[in-house]
Fold this protein.
Amino acid sequence: MKGSPIAAALLDWHRRAGRHDLPWQHPRTPYRVWVSEIMLQQTQVATVIPYYRRFLERFPDIRTLADAPVDEVLHLWSGLGYYARARHLHRAAALIRDGYGGELPASFEALAALPGIGRSTAGAILAQTHGVRVPILDGNARRVLARYFAVAGARGERSAEKRLWELAERCTPGQRVADYTQAIMDLGATVCVRRRPLCAQCPLAAGCQARRSGRQHQLPGARRSGVRRLQRVFMLIALQDCARVRLERRPEAGIWGGLWCLPEFTSADAAAAFARQTLGVDGAPPQALPELQHAFTHFDLTITPLLVHCTRAADLVEEQRALWYNLREPARVGLPAPIGALLTRLAEQTLC
Ligand code: SF4
């Protein structure tokens, strides 16, 4: 482990205490590692595992994934959040099917150029599946290195990024790269955690600068964030024949991008006007149901669902961006978690 100040201790720790039974480690193929790396971005292992198993069961290889409708991919991603990851995965699978004969490319440049695969993810895939010496800097590795070497500066700050990539490069050993890569990610996920790192159990404690100076909680620097925003929206449950609800596909940019959702409005009046003008509802005004709360990373969303009954004469056409979702026989499409839960609850009630 010549040259790396942390590799020997990390590898020794990994052998004794690291995670060796994760589903993507057996077998550790490029496709399986790729899917795991994308799912693990911003998401913890315990959350990912059941999603990963279901995903691999339905899409066991790149061609199956590439040939599937994006709605089915989003359906299996529903609840995991950050839906651009799923859309990128699907788009990249089609590019790999068409341009690389269905095999994930083994060149760093080609991998990093695919949608959703940046520098660190490309490195993690190559290191873990081909043993290529490439540094990684995912959130876990970043936290370990920032603390061990006391690199200040918020995430995204250019000088801190540059310094951390230099350190990642310096610390990556020439041998056992796959294990080292897994080890530094595991250490960040289980020992050098964001709040209350377990320094007493850490194999790097002796040389860690943050620990020495008691600055574990200040490093790495947090992204500057403003006051947490509160947002309120109204969503229309347009119910037809007591069983079908109108859903619309959300634009790709923005929250829940590409998922199917209830039509959203900024006011109850706007929702009522839509019900009258577009759906031909001329009966009672929409009825407000109990509010839903949903927390995003940077803001809190309050949703007021408004229930309205449509007559048979209402628009039944399934457009590209709208569909009538059968509550009793749900289509396999991607739904935001709180909307999916709301629709499940509605399906259990007598609505008419
Ligand atoms: S000693 Fe503590 S802060 Fe330093 S790397 Fe280990 S867990 Fe992280």
